[in-house]
Every structure is written in structure tokens, then in C-alpha cells.
Give the backbone structure.
Amino acid sequence: MTPSLDYELIRKTYLPSRVRVLYIGESRPHNGTFFYLQNSLLYSAIFESYTKLFPEMSNHFLEHFARLGLYLDDLVDEPVNHLDTTIRLSKRNEGIPSLAKRIQLFKPNAIICVIKSIEEQVFEAIKLSKSQISYLEVLPFPTQNYKSYFINKHIHILKDLDRKGILGLSI
């Protein structure tokens, strides 16, 4: 039997001192993959987007990600992708106040919601946080059907964030 992982401790390892761009997902997957373990669909798509623009980021990607002020958090702190639709929606709604507090704490300049089906809850959390978010985008989750679209749209978003001075990368 493998020991259970403390996913939130792993995530916090990569918390930047200043969060410029907050990526928001639904939850970590039920199957045990996790963005910060570098083995999820979302990790693969975000990694590919960045390394198309910055090939040098392919080594130690998560360290570069954090150094740029980028951070991925989730609406719900436990896996929900395996749950019945009604329960899953309930868990999403229960996650709004906690996400709102984290948005207040992080004070990001930009938010990128990385799964379209949670945009309503993300918008509600932003409103509840009373935060001024200068840039907000919503992407579809990068399943096989949407991975190319996700990567191309994400690259466009990164260039736009840089033009607006949020990333400071000179793309």
C-alpha cells in the first residue's frame, strides 16, 4: 500500500510570494494525478503552452511557474470528478466561500479559470472576495478534444497578460 500524499502541502511548496496570475481548477482528479506532481492533463497543457513560448522553462517548470507569480488553486479541496452531478455541483457551491478567502489573500492581478463548467462559482467567489481582478479568462478543460484549443488560447492569454504588464516577460 502506498502512503497517502499531502496534496495541499505539495501545492503550497510552489506558492509564490506574490501571486500575479491565479489559475483556478475544479479539484484535483480522483485518479491521483495532480498538477503539482506533473502528471495531470492540465499540467501537460499548461506546460506545453509555456514551453512553446519559452523552451528554457522545460527544465524545472514548476519553479519557473512559481517564480513568475503563477499559482494553481482549486475551487474544491477534495476530488469531485467521480461524483454524481448533483453532489458535484453541491461541493462546487460549498467551495465558493473558501475560494473567495484565498482570492482575498492572494490578491492576484489576473485569474484564469481552467474549466468552463465552474465559471459561475469562480465569478461568485471573485464577487464575494470584493477583489479587483484586472484580467479574467475562462478556458475549457484540456481533454483530448480541447487540448489544442486550450494551448493556443492559453498562449494568446499569456501574450495578452504580458502586453498588459502583468507577467513582465517581454514575449
About this structure: The first strand starts at residue 21 and ends at 25. The mean pLDDT is 94.
